[in-house]
């Protein structure tokens, strides 16, 4: 029953985003693309951060590598879709190899290691000028078609990635893999003891958390037409994605999608009004989130909250009578 | 450029790095929190030094105690009112919270101070020893950094609050039973971390141009030094800092300065995997 509800809500939401090119202007389509893109990355992060409970902050490394792999493949004459697939494959292999190494670390050391990966990939990209263009960045061949067609195409590709990621997360949630990951999140030693192959489970979760980010990065690079190391391997991105998941509810299926949607729209409202304060606003959202919504939007007891509110409303007239 | 010059540069740089990392290592070791604010504290200290110097003309060396104390206050309040509430939560929560606070501080600094690189220029000349030469301001920075490190070492060893911090680090529960107010100790420890960061910032503003864009770089150095030197020990951070200074100095000479930072990160990842307690990591906190 619950599964149907998830499917229904998700399908409705995707349909709404998918309808934007038919109904709305370019500005709205751009927001829709952002939502699809960040939802995809949030769903990916949920595999390692939500199900497995590992504080991974390497999203930006996968995204950036996806950007560069896609761009370099296209510049060397590989056709568009092949380049995207190649970038995805490259990031998946990279993440699997990296995961086998850094997933031996736990807690704080893993967090530091995963942040260092972002810095390291950025530094290597900016100093390997002959391949990546260094700090000057790289021009990516533009997509064919009018601006409307291009943004619609990008939107549908991003949505397709999101749907695949979401279906994968439903599958993982219900499979042995997901069960094992949740065991690892609760107590890794005990999980290991009862026969969960923790190392390979973690590597699979880490790879899943990377592969969609790589694909999204490659598509993003084609969409914007120009990439540089600071933007692609942005420390802000690596923070934003976990925050979105925490906002929605880590470890849940719909949480990441909800969190990403709410976050992107909040950001859009704030950006329109206070452009130079965007980092402080991100910080403010984080502080609010940690103190007032520690379990995310999905885990709020709405029924209790509603009941309390109704009680307050019912009492209000009485209070007014008393005081008058 | 001969080997001794590289060695000297490395040691000077390394003492400054040690000063950066000590506060970070202390907070991580005692509170078990990765303080993402550390880089911004350093830059804040540097900017305050620059503006105070520009306004009053007083040598930043004399401003250092005031600025560092102001940062102690900021750190104390942040820990007392925010971070203490989640201090025993999983790393994802604490790290995200300090990251968020860092975003706010960073944004405030860019808006009020702008990101223009600034430097306190004292023009003290250079010292020549044979065919090596060293700018006097760097030597002074190194002296100050080493002095502060020694001071912290003494405070940890000999003062009442220092012993209380060590006790909390060793066993939080037992420390509570001995009548130590753990939350207060946490706030003071975080304050000391901010104090050292502010002092490091003042020193840096006399030696290099500083700008808000450097917060991440400084934070990265602190990560690497903590992994080399182990957590929460003053000598460990000193050794880690000087090791990193030397490595960067040699790497900058042999494979180019743009790759020096990369070498540090690669070394850190390697060490994390083979020896996560650090090369000179110790259990207690002497």
Automatic annotation (TrEMBL), chain A:
It is a multi-pass membrane protein. GO terms for cellular component: plasma membrane. GO terms for molecular function: branched-chain amino acid transmembrane transporter activity. InterPro entries: ABC_transp_permease (IPR001851), LivM-like (IPR043428). Pfam families: BPD_transp_2. It comes from Sneathiella litorea. The chain crosses the membrane at residues 6-24, 54-73, 80-103, 109-131, 152-172, 203-227, 239-265, 277-298. Keywords: Cell membrane, Membrane, Transmembrane, Transmembrane helix. This is Branched-chain amino acid ABC transporter permease. The keyword Cell membrane applies.
TrEMBL record, chain B:
GO terms for molecular function: transmembrane transporter activity. CDD domains: TM_PBP1_LivH_like. It is a multi-pass membrane protein. The keyword Lipid metabolism does not apply. Keywords: Amino-acid transport, Cell membrane, Membrane, Transmembrane, Transmembrane helix, Transport. It is found in: Cell membrane. Coiled coil: none annotated. The keyword Nucleus does not apply. GO terms for cellular component: plasma membrane. InterPro entries: ABC_transp_permease, BCAA_transport_permease. One of its GO terms (biological process) is amino acid transport. The chain crosses the membrane at residues 6-30, 37-56, 62-83, 95-116, 136-155, 185-210, 222-247, 259-278. Belongs to the binding-protein-dependent transport system permease family. LivHM subfamily. This is Branched-chain amino acid ABC transporter permease. The lineage of its organism: Bacteria, Pseudomonadati, Pseudomonadota, Alphaproteobacteria, Sneathiellales.
């Amino acid at each position: 029953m619950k599964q149907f509800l998830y499917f229904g809500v998700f399908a409705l939401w995707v349909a709404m985003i998918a309808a934007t090119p038919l109904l709305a202007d370019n500005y709205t389509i751009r927001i829709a693309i952002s939502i699809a893109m960040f939802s995809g990355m949030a769903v990916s992060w949920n595999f390692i951060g939500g199900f497995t409970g590992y504080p991974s902050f390497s999203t930006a490394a996968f995204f950036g590598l996806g950007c560069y792999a896609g761009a370099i493949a296209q510049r060397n004459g590989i056709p568009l879709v092949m380049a995207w697939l190649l970038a995805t494959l490259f990031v998946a292999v990279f993440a699997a190899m990296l995961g086998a190494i850094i997933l031996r670390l736990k807690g704080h050391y893993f967090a530091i290691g995963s942040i260092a990966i972002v810095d390291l990939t950025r530094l290597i990209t900016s100093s390997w000028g002959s391949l990546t263009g260094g700090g000057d960045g790289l021009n990516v061949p533009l997509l064919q078609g009018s601006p409307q067609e291009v943004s619609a195409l990008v939107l549908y590709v991003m949505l397709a990635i999101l749907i695949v990621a979401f279906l994968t997360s439903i599958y993982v949630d219900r499979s042995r893999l997901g069960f094992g990951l949740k065991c690892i999140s609760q107590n890794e030693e005990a999980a290991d003891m009862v026969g969960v192959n923790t190392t390979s489970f973690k590597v699979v979760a880490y790879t899943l958390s990377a592969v969609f980010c790589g694909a999204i990065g490659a598509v993003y690079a084609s969409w914007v037409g120009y990439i540089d190391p600071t933007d692609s391997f942005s420390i802000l991105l690596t923070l934003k994605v976990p925050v979105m998941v925490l906002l929605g509810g880590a470890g849940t299926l719909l949480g990441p999608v909800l969190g990403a949607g709410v976050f992107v729209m909040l950001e859009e409202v704030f950006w329109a009004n206070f452009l130079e304060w965007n980092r402080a606003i991100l910080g403010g959202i984080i502080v609010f989130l940690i103190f007032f919504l520690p379990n995310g939007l999905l885990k709020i007891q709405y029924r209790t909250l509603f009941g309390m509110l109704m009680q307050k409303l019912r009492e209000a007239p009485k209070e007014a009578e008393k005081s008058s | 450029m001969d080997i001794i010059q590289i060695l000297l540069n490395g040691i000077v740089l390394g003492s400054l790095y040690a000063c950066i990392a000590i506060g970070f290592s202390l907070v991580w070791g005692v509170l078990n929190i990765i303080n993402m604010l550390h880089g911004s504290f350093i830059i804040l200290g540097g900017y305050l030094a620059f503006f105070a110097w520009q306004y009053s003309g007083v040598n930043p060396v004399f401003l250092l105690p005031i600025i560092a104390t102001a940062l102690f206050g900021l750190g104390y309040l942040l820990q007392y009112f925010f971070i203490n509430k989640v201090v025993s939560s999983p790393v994802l929560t604490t790290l995200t919270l300090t990251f968020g606070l860092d975003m706010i501080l960073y944004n405030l600094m860019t808006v009020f101070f702008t990101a223009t690189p600034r430097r306190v220029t004292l023009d003290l000349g250079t010292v020549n020893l044979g065919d090596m030469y060293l700018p006097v301001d760097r030597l002074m920075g190194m002296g100050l950094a080493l002095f502060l490190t020694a001071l912290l070492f003494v405070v940890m060893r000999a003062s009442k609050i220092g012993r209380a911090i060590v006790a909390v680090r060793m066993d939080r529960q037992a420390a509570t039973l001995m009548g130590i107010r753990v939350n207060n100790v946490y706030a003071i420890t975080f304050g000391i971390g901010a104090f050292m960061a502010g002092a490091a910032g003042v020193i840096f503003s006399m030696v290099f141009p500083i700008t808000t864009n450097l917060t991440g770089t400084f934070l990265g150095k602190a990560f690497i030094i903590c992994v080399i030197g182990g957590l929460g020990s003053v000598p460990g951070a000193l050794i880690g800092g000087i090791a990193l200074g030397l490595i960067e100095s040699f790497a900058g000479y042999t494979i180019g300065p743009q790759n020096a930072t990369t070498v540090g990160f690669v070394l850190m990842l390697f060490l994390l995997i083979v020896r996560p307690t650090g090369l000179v990591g110790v259990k207690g906190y002497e």
